[in-house]
Amino acid sequence: MTGKLGVAALNDLISATGIEDPAVIQGAAYGEDAAAIDLGDRILVVSTDPLSLAAEAVGRLAVHVACNDIAASGADPQWLTNTVFLPNDDRGTRETIATQVDRAAREASVTIVGGHTEVLPALERPLLSMTAFGTTDRFLRTGGAAVGDRLILTKGAAIEATAILATDFRDSCLDAGVSAETLDSAAGFLNSVSVIEDARALRDVATAMHDPTEGGLISALVEMAAAGGHVLSVDRDRVPIRSETAACCEAMEVDPLATFGSGALLAAVPEGRVEEALDALEAAGIEGASIGEVCTPEGDAESGTLLLDNERIREAPRDACYPLWE
Questions:
Q1: What does the alpha-carbon distance between residue 136 and residue 149 come to, in Å, rounded to a whole number?
Q2: Rounded Cα distance, 215 and 317, in Å
Q3: Alpha helices per DSSP H over 53-126
Q4: What secondary structure does DSSP assign to 215-257, as a single string?
Q5: Sheet harboring 288-295: ordered strands across?
Q6: Which of 213, 230, 238, 242 has fewest C-beta within 10 Å?
Q7: Fold of domain 7-136
Q8: Pairing between strand 111-119 and 76-86?
Q9: What's the average model confidence in pLDDT over 250-270?
Q10: Same fold, 7-136 and 150-325
Q11: Rounded to an integer, what distance in angstroms lies between the CA atom of residue 290 and that of residue 292?
Q12: Where do the domains of the chain lie?
């Protein structure tokens, strides 16, 4: 079944880490999207992400998804390696991917420094896996939030999914009653999937940041709760959802809080600095909203729990868009 591994299965893989190295500040762990390595005067941040299902924009999204994890860790993305698996040696596909990757890398101010390419006929569509690198002097863990912190979300839920629905599933959305004008606007959300500027605006005040991707905001919240051993309480009605997102997700029966969320940044901020954080976002021209808080585990709300209204969630959901490809 398509989607992320469960926690137990994931631990089988991330527990295999080779020799211990004291330079590793953050290694493989559930909920932590980036590794951090102490170089002495700087911290090197590294993250890898694959992308295959967004057929119309796989090159563009692959670059930004990888860079977003670096930005969410408090670093500026600087370099990328690009591994490309193709179902066949089609020149048009190669040129399209190369053009998208180059353009997105220039937008993110990163350099492609290497990678690997291969034809793999077992694939139905191209698969790209990007490894991003960046440096910082203050690494932010996903699990770094403190009890009492407030949770801020930038832009809105399901930014990436909205663009996918409006491009890969345009005809289905039209048949379901979404207007062509709405879909044209929604397709433009591809220009909003980077969170580099969001992270730059928040990283000096945030205690933790996380990039919602597969499984959307709900998955990101569950992962942040698990990584920090906290309970996160969120009101669904406080989560910003753009009108185009609401239209496309309703048409395709997709929960906007449980689907591809690149373009939004989830941040934990001390209670006394929320207005400062929102002002910083506004100054950068970025929408932001306070959607919840970090709580102490208590009673039925064990550590690693998301309280979404009255629902207790401890496992990240399978992305709500996956059934559309099956």
A1: 23
A2: 6
A3: 58-72, 91-108
A4: THHHHHHHHHHHHHT-EEEE-GGGS---HHHHHHHHHTT--TT
A5: 208-210, 266-269, 150-154, 288-295, 231-234, 305-308, 311-313
A6: 238
A7: 60s Ribosomal Protein L30; Chain: A; (3.30.1330)
A8: parallel
A9: 96
A10: no
A11: 6
A12: 7-136, 150-325
For residues 256, 257, 258 and 261, what is the CA-based torsion angle, rounded to 10 degrees? 80
* Residue type at 153 in one-letter notation: L
What whole-number percentage of the chain has pLDDT above 70? 97
Q: Which tens digits make up the pLDDT trace of 23-56?
A: 999 888 878 889 999 999 999 999 998 887 666 7
| Residue 58 or 277, more confident | 277
Q: What is the DSSP letter of 35?
A: E
Give yes or no for residue 3 having a pLDDT over 90.
Answer: no
Among 59-63, 70-74, 210-214, top mean pLDDT goes to: 70-74
Which residues lie below 8 Å from residue 247, measured CB to CB, with a gap of 6+?
A: 178, 179, 182, 186
**Beta-sheet pairing, 288-295 with 76-86:** unpaired
What's this model's pTM, rounded to 2 decimal places? 0.91
CA dist 23 and 145 (Å) reads 23
